[in-house]
Amino acid sequence: MNIPQQHSKLRLIPDKHRIRTIVSIMGLLVLMSTATVACSTEEKTLVDSPVGAEVDPVKITMLSSGTSSTNAKVLRYLDLANGETDKQKLTLEISEGFAQSVVNNDAVDPQAPAGGEVTTLTSSLEAETITPENSDSKRSVSLSITDSSSDNLADNQDLDTTQGFRFGWFASDAGQISSVNLAAPSKATDAGRSIIEQYYMKLVPFTVVFPADPISVGGSWKVESRVANDSTMLQTTTYTVTDLVADTVHLDVSVEQRPVLGALSLPIDDQTRSLTVLSSTTTSQGKIVVDLHKPLPVSGDIGFTTRVVYGEESTQTRVVQDSTQAISFGSV
Asked: pTM of the full predicted structure?
């Protein structure tokens, strides 16, 4: 699969999707306390009070322990080991795209394509892990987001106001996130805030959650979750260990998404029609490298496109929806 690149100059996600994103975030549990947030105490930018949202627990299933039982080890984040507080510096690219078409049944290809047109947000990050206060979680990860830009040039003026945006989460040493929080710079525009929030919520399912059992090269496990900020989609991410040297883990990653609901109401021919999910497929490709002493992968890319076909058995009309996401980690 070709990982989607930042080549599109068109916004493929309409503004109403962005509005739904913010409403969805705000509709979750709101935590306005400034005493326990996953943000560093060293603030360089004046930010508003953080807004928090709980994250649904994931389900982890061990598929294979690998080829060597003697070299197998339990993988856990060590970003707090020996009092480590060094900041991880990296460049992050997050891409998304959406396309919808109405076609006849005989023109439908149910297989998801290998990528699609996307809009890409690029940011510089400093990530830091500290021991949280007044929290049951073992780790508090904080990202300071700077120099954000989009290949949708109309967004960049608003993104300029988001310098120093804070995004963080509480998590276990296995990587399970219990809640996230966001703190926008006081000077940020509403549009700038919504862009950062929309894209960075997509980072949540790509923070690796490790299994409880020892694993070696060749081992694999899957993580099942609701798509962050989208209660209508379920995601299964499968990780396979391709190399394991000391505290550095190389992983192949595959992703599958599917709708939670079996039907969708859409306006067609001036009528609201209830369409059934006829098929759902995902094409994906991904490779990442995780340094257990860092909160985020140090390198790698993950990209996938999910195609959902809706229709009525009694008619030949089909609605085809393609949604593409990609994320790229690059160390500075």
From this structure: 0.83
